Amino acid sequence: MRVLGIETSCDETGVAIYDSEQGLLGHELYSQVDLHAKYGGVVPELASRDHVRKLIPLIKQLLTNTNIKSSEINGVAYTAGPGLIGALLVGAAVGRSLAWGWQIPAIGVHHLEGHLLAAMLESPAPSFPFLTLLVSGGHTQLIQVTNIGKYSLLGESLDDAAGEAFDKTAKLLGLGYPGGPALAKLAEQGNPDIFHFPRPMTKQPGLNFSFSGLKTQVLTTWHKNEKQNKADIARAFEDAVIDTLIIKCRRAIKQTGLERLVIAGGVGANQRLRERMAQFTKQIGVALFYPRPIFCTDNGAMIAYAGALRLENGQAEPLEFFAHPRWPLENNCY
Ligand code: KG4
Ligand code: ZN
Fold it and tell me: pLDDT at residue 226 above 80?
C-alpha cells in the first residue's frame, strides 16, 4: 500500500509518501519559522493561512520529485490532532478531499502516534516492546509501546512539556523563536560548573515530570547575575532537563524491564540529549533508537507511516472528517 501523509498540526507543513513494501519514497517539509519569528511564537491564524498556501504546492512537488502519479497512491493519512484546530483542519480538508477525488481511503492519524513510531522508519528499527520517551513542544511522556496501537502511558509532565520549557526559557533569555535549538546552541558555549538547577520531581517516586519551575530559576539566576553568564545559564538549564529525563527513563526501564528505549519528538533532536542518552543506555545495556533529527520534529513521513499501518489494518474513515485540538493518545488504541 502506498500512502500520502500530510502533517499540518502546528507550524510545519510536511508531506511524504510511504510504501509498505518499498519504505519511504520521499518527503517534503516547509517550515513556517520565518513567518512566526517576529512574533516570538506561533500565531495560529497565520499558521492556518500558510498551510492553505503551501500544502497543495508541496504535494505537487513531492509527486514530481518522487516521479509518482496520483493514480499510484492508494491511501491518504493526515494528522487529525492534537494541535492547532485551524491548522489541523487544513490538512484534514485537503487530505479528505484528495482521497475523495482519487476514490481511495483516508485516515486521520494521531500526531503523537506519528512521533512514537517515527523511529520505525530507520534501520535498524526497534522491535516491540519498547519504552518511548516522547519529548516534544506539547508533550513529555513515557509510553510503553507493546505493539502498533498498544500504548500505555507510564508518566507525563504535569505542567510544561520539555520543549515548551526550552522555548519559554529561551524567550526569557531573549533568544527568540524557535527557542529550543537557539538555547541548545548557546548552551554549547556554556560552562557546566557555574550554575546548578534542581532536577524537578526526581526525589519523589513515580514517572511524572514538572518543568515549569525551571524557567523561574533561570530568570532569577539571570537577574542576580545582572544578565551576564547567559551561556552558562543555558548550559545549566539544558543539563537539568537532560538529567531529569535520564533519571525518569532509568526508573521506567527498571519498572518495566524493557530492553529498548526510543527517543521521539522535537527535543530528541538535541545533540547533548542524544550523547547523554547514548552513554546512559550503554551503561545499563539497553538499546537506544531515534528517528533522524529531521523526523524528530514534525514531518509528513511519520504520518504517512502511521497511516499506512492503520489503513493496511483495514481502518479508514467516512467522508465526515474530524480534527481534535485535544486528543488523549490512549483513546486511540486498537
Ligand atoms: O515535535 P515537535 O516538532 O512539535 C510538537 O509536536 O510539539 O517539537 C518541537 C519542540 C519545540 O519546543 C522545540 O523548541 C524543541 O522541540 N526542539 C528542541 C531542539 N529542536 C527542537 N529542543 C531542544 N534542543 C533542540 N535541538
Ligand atoms: Zn510534534
Answer: yes
Residue 333 burial class via C-beta count within 10 angstroms: exposed 0-12, middle 13-18, buried 19 and up: middle
What lies within 8 Å, CB to CB, of 180 at 6+ separation is: 137, 163, 166, 167, 170, 266, 267, 269, 270
Kindly tell me if the per-residue pLDDT of 334 is higher than 80: no
> Which residues does a 6 A CB cutoff place in the pocket of ligand 1?
10, 136-138, 163-164, 166-167, 178-181, 184, 265-267, 269-270, 297-298
DSSP state letters, 89-132? HHHHHHHHHHHHHHT--EEEEEHHHHHHHGGGGSSSPPPSSEEE
Nearest CA residue ID for atom 16, ligand 1: 266
> Which atom of ligand 1 is the closest one to the Cα of 238?
23
Q: What are the cell numbers at 138?
A: 506539547
- What is the identity of the amino acid at 4? L
Ligand 1 nearest-atom number relative to CA 298 = 3
Q: What pTM value is reported for the model?
A: 0.94
Number of H helices, E strands in the chain: 11, 10
Summarised one tens digit per residue, pLDDT across range 69-87 is: 999 999 999 999 999 999 9
CA 293 to ligand 1: nearest atom: 20
3-state secondary structure of 305: helix
Residues near ligand 2 ion, CB 5 Å cutoff = 136, 298
Here the cell at position 192 is 557546566
